[in-house]
Model the fold of this input.
Amino acid sequence: MAEANSMNLYKDISDKSFERIVRCDDPVAGLTAIIAIHDTTLGPALGGTRFYPYTSFEEALADVKRLAEAMTYKNAIAGLPFGGGKAVIIGDPRTDKTLELLKAYGGFLDYLEGRYFTAEDVGTGIEDMAFIRQYSRYARGFPQADGAPHPATAKGVFLGIKAALKHCLGSDDLSNRTVAIQGLGHVGMKTAEYLHAEGAHLKVADIDAGRATEAALRFDGEIIGSEHIHEVAADVFSPCAMGGSLNETTIPQIAAPVVAGSANNQLSTLADGRRLMDRNILYAPDFVINAGGVIDVAMEGLREKEDAIQRKVREIPNTLSRIFKQAQAERRPTQEIALEIAKRIIVKARQDGHREAG
Done:
């Protein structure tokens, strides 16, 4: 277990709504990270490690808390034996990521002794997880463990988009449908590939012009500026970049009847779910539609892993369809319905645990 010392600091951050939040500092390695464990009722916390150039520690703390809580609900509604957690490393992964820093992070990760398992996220990849694995057995989703989880995330998003189209427009046929994709990282690019293969016309945007150009060339897509992609006429707006893209400013500008994408925490606030509903825009709750990646990581080490993953991922559109129907019948936001379902699963598990303990 990693020892805290004068150059390797491990500090708890108090928050009664979380089981544990810790700040991890190693000045020599240039590491400042936060690990947030939200809830472990269903099992040890599982969630990715994000490496991002936050403008302040407070911004990073707010983000990791939102992400960790979302993982609790994502894992619950996906039927996985894991609770919710997340980690963020503060810095620019293009310039600040070093082997020394990742080694130090692995030591901090090991300090939690299995209460938190991690995998790739924005700014980290399977190669990083493979290196961290040398210093902590709680890193997952690396090449030797059957590859990256992002294809499973993209497959779930693709199937979720089809489910949303069927509910909203009466057919899941993607030929002649237009999908506007915001963000072309690993998941966004793979989602575009799936959509293009079934005949969808793509409008694409990314802050990295090279990625947008690549997608446009590969998938015969139309490049749109990142700041305007949500405004273009389309059947589906698919947020696949960072969170918070659905807010009181952007929602009135959305020109698609369906919003379904892979980004975490797409709604800036819960009130934005009602704003979408009031505009008759069908929203696929993010922590339901983007669960493919965590399903992949959760299945790591199982025999017949691929079959198990595919079965679980194919449940995503069915879960979404049930949420859509209930939301429509009760005239309530889909995000609200999804959260209620996830929380009921956790409460029931907690109650069952108490009964067994008694």
Notes: The CA atoms of residues 17 and 38 lie 7 Å apart.
